[in-house]
Design a protein that fits this description.
Order of helices and strands: HEHEEEEEEEEHEEEEEEEEEEHHEEE
CATH architecture of the largest domain: Sandwich
CATH topology of the largest domain: Jelly Rolls
Number of strands: 22
Number of helices: 5
Largest sheet: 8 strands, antiparallel
Strand content: 25-35%
Structural class: alpha+beta
Helix content: 10-25%
């Protein structure tokens, strides 16, 4: 029989190692993610239709859909749901990526009742906030029935509204109370990689924006982050006699979220951030500013290009000796004549002589 003190030691060991059980990522996830050790959540909007196909669910339709479930790729099956139709973020598929758009009114996704205590954690979010103030959050987690900022963790944009992204607030068990970790204000509406490393001790909680170090704050050395409930695009707390409830809704876009059950060391954190930077270069830097993947050949401007170039072998192009104004449609007719239609109402018939 174990001595009472030995039982306490064993219980503590189980408590802090619970989140480190290894799980294999789902087969539909992005194989370029360089790190899955300790991965406890992985929501990749760009892979949701692949995930839904595996699960036998209908695919999401661009600009006209609102997912009721967001499938977790970590292998731990922590899928997010939202049963209320008008509280679901909108799915958007654009030429530069897939994303969820949160309305800042009541949109969020979440899960409940999955008890997981964490000694440390790392949360990484790729998002573009459009509004701030009112503790609008990227994500939060908490112990069941308790405030996120005392029992779990929240990553939000602070209480005060502003015309810029002026604050990034991180609170949680062992480090509660609003605290701005952003060192330099940023324009609203731009895409960023937000990385929060929640370690312990002096300056144990650190924020990185697009891989660049921001502020840090202390965290109590014996505190535990409870991971019972999770909210994406919102917080769960109450500063009134009401019980903790979901509020602080995100107004903006979001495309990928990763959470680890440990404070990632710099080398691993940077590897994850490089993966996201390569994947979302068009969002983070614009179409021309993304980094080139290894082995890819960048496009080079052709010197002295012809006015018209046909990219299929065996064809040549030459300029016709005619000038037509206001043409917006050109079609070949069945008899070989070329019909040109002008937006001023004129029609031209061109014959090959």
């Amino acid at each position: 029989m174990l001595h009472r003190s030995s039982q306490r030691i064993l219980l503590g060991s189980l408590l802090f190692s619970f989140g480190s059980i290894a799980f294999a990522a789902e087969p539909w996830t992005d194989p370029h993610l360089p790190l899955t050790n300790g991965l406890v959540l992985w929501f990749d909007v760009s892979r949701q239709n692949a995930a839904r196909g595996t699960a036998g669910l209908a695919p999401l339709q661009s600009w006209n859909d609102a997912p009721d479930v967001l499938l977790d790729g970590s292998g731990q099956h922590r899928h997010l749901t939202q049963p209320v139709l008008n509280a679901r973020p909108r799915f958007r598929q654009e030429f530069n990526g897939a994303m969820l758009s949160f309305d800042g009114i009541n949109d969020f996704l979440g899960f409940n009742g999955q008890s997981s205590p964490l000694a440390e954690a790392t949360l990484v979010v790729v998002a573009a906030p459009r509004t701030n103030g009112g503790f609008r959050a990227l994500a939060s987690f908490n112990a069941a029935g308790r405030n996120d900022y005392t029992s779990g963790l929240n990553l939000d944009f602070g209480a005060a509204p502003a015309t810029t992204l002026a604050r990034v607030n991180a609170e949680g068990a062992g480090f509660n109370g609003e605290f701005n970790l952003l060192t330099t204000p940023q324009p609203l509406g731009r895409w960023h990689v937000f990385t929060l490393v929640a370690g312990r001790g002096s300056r144990g909680v650190r924020l990185f924006l697009d891989g660049q170090p921001q502020g840090a704050r202390d965290r109590d050395g014996d505190s535990v982050l409870r991971f019972d409930d999770f909210a994406l695009g919102a917080r769960r707390y109450s500063n009134t006699p009401d019980r903790p409830h979901v509020q602080g809704f995100l107004g903006g876009e979001l495309t990928e979220v990763l959470a680890f059950d440990r404070a990632l060391p710099d080398a691993e954190r940077q590897a994850v951030e490089r993966y996201l930077d390569a994947k979302y270069g068009a969002l983070l830097h614009g179409l021309g500013g993304g980094p080139v993947r290894e082995g890819a050949v960048p496009l080079v401007t052709v010197s002295n290009p012809p006015p018209v170039q046909v990219f299929v072998p065996g064809f040549s192009a030459r300029e016709l000796p005619v000038e037509l104004n206001n043409v917006n449609n050109v079609r070949y007719r069945a008899d070989g004549k070329l019909v040109a239609v002008g937006y001023d109402g004129r029609l031209w018939l061109l014959s090959d002589s």
